[in-house]
Design brief:
The chain has 281 residues and is an alpha+beta fold. The chain is 25% helix and 29% strand. The chain has 7 helices and 15 strands.
Length: 281
C-alpha cells in the first residue's frame, strides 16, 4: 500500500486495460539523435509500452519552462503514466537521478527542480534517489543520463519493477523558486511566467485566485497593465474581445494577456519575468 491507497492493485487494473505509457519532455530538440536514443533505451528494456512525446522544444537549460510545461500537461494523461522529464544542465554532476511517485503518476528525471510544480500540485507518496545502478545501461555516459539512466529506468518501471526497488527514499529533493503574485485589496502584482507559441503571455496568476479576489472586492472587471499598455478583462475567448490587448483565463487555468490573431509578446515587446499589474474596477 502506498500513500494509504492500494496503488499496486489499481496499477494492475490499468495494465490490463492498456500498455503502460511513457511520456517524454526534454530540451533536446529533434534535429539530433538524442530523443531517438532515449526511445531505443526504453525499447531495449520492454517493447510493451506506448512512448509519447510531450515536447522536445523546451528552451535549452530552461528549468522553469520545462517545469511549467510539465505542470500544464501531466494532469490530462491517464493515471500511472510515467513521465521522463530531462532538462538537465547539471548532467554528470552530483545532482541525483529521481523517481517521484505521486498518488496518480510517476516522474523520472534529475533532482534540479524540474518537478517543482509537481510537488505543489500532486500528493507525493515517495521520492527515490535512483541509486540501484543495475537498472542503468551497462555503460553510463556522464553527458547523457537521459539515455543511460532515466530512459532505461522508465522502461523497467513500465515492465513492472516496483518503485521501491529503484533506490533510497529521500525528503531533501530540490525545488526551483516559483514566483507568486502579490495581492492587495484591489490590486494584484503578477509576472509573466510563460510565453507560448502564439505570443500569449501566461502570468503566474491563477484564474481561480483572481475570481476569488474580484468576488471579495465586488469587482466585475479589471485592467492589466504591461509595459505601460493596458489590457482589458476579463473576456471569455480570444475572438470575443473588443480591444487589441485583453486578458482571459486560458486553458492552463492561469490568466493570460493576449491579442486576437496577433502576438501580445510582439506588441508589448516583453518576455518572461515582466511585471503585470492588475487593477480591479
Amino acid at each position: 500500500m502506498e500513500g494509504g491507497l492500494l496503488m499496486k492493485d489499481k496499477e494492475e487494473v490499468a495494465r490490463l486495460e492498456r500498455w503502460p505509457i511513457i511520456a517524454l519532455l526534454t530540451d533536446f530538440g529533434t534535429q539530433d539523435h538524442y530523443v531517438a536514443c532515449m526511445k531505443a533505451a526504453i525499447l531495449a528494456v520492454t517493447s510493451k509500452v506506448q512512448i509519447l512525446d510531450i515536447t522536445h522544444d523546451i528552451p535549452s537549460h530552461d528549468l522553469l519552462s520545462g517545469a511549467f510545461t510539465l505542470k500544464s500537461v501531466f494532469p490530462f494523461f491517464p493515471y500511472y503514466t510515467i513521465f521522463v522529464a530531462v532538462v538537465d544542465p547539471g548532467v554528470g554532476t552530483k545532482r541525483r537521478p529521481l523517481l517521484v511517485v505521486t498518488e496518480n503518476y510517476y516522474f523520472i528525471g534529475p533532482d534540479n527542480g524540474i518537478f517543482s510544480f509537481v510537488y505543489e500540485d500532486e500528493r507525493v507518496t515517495t521520492v527515490y534517489d535512483i541509486d540501484s545502478t543495475h537498472y542503468y545501461r551497462p555503460q553510463v555516459s556522464p553527458t547523457f543520463h537521459g539515455r543511460d539512466i532515466f530512459a532505461p529506468c522508465a522502461g523497467w518501471l513500465a515492465k513492472g519493477v516496483e518503485s521501491e526497488n529503484f533506490g533510497t527514499p529521500i525528503t531533501n529533493y530540490g525545488r526551483i523558486p516559483i514566483p507568486k503574485p502579490e495581492f492587495s485589496e484591489k490590486t494584484i502584482t503578477a509576472m509573466i511566467l510563460h510565453v507560448d507559441k502564439f505570443g500569449n503571455l501566461i502570468t503566474n496568476l491563477k484564474g481561480a485566485d483572481l475570481q476569488q479576489v474580484m468576488s471579495k472586492a465586488g469587482s466585475k472587471s479589471f485592467t492589466a497593465t504591461v509595459a505601460g499598455k493596458a489590457a482589458q478583462g476579463p473576456v471569455a475567448t480570444y475572438g470575443g474581445a473588443a480591444s487589441e490587448l485583453f486578458a482571459l483565463v486560458g486553458s492552463t487555468g492561469y490568466v493570460e494577456i493576449a491579442a486576437n490573431q496577433k502576438s501580445a509578446r510582439n506588441i508589448l515587446q516583453v518576455t518572461r519575468g515582466a511585471q503585470v499589474k492588475f487593477q480591479l474596477a
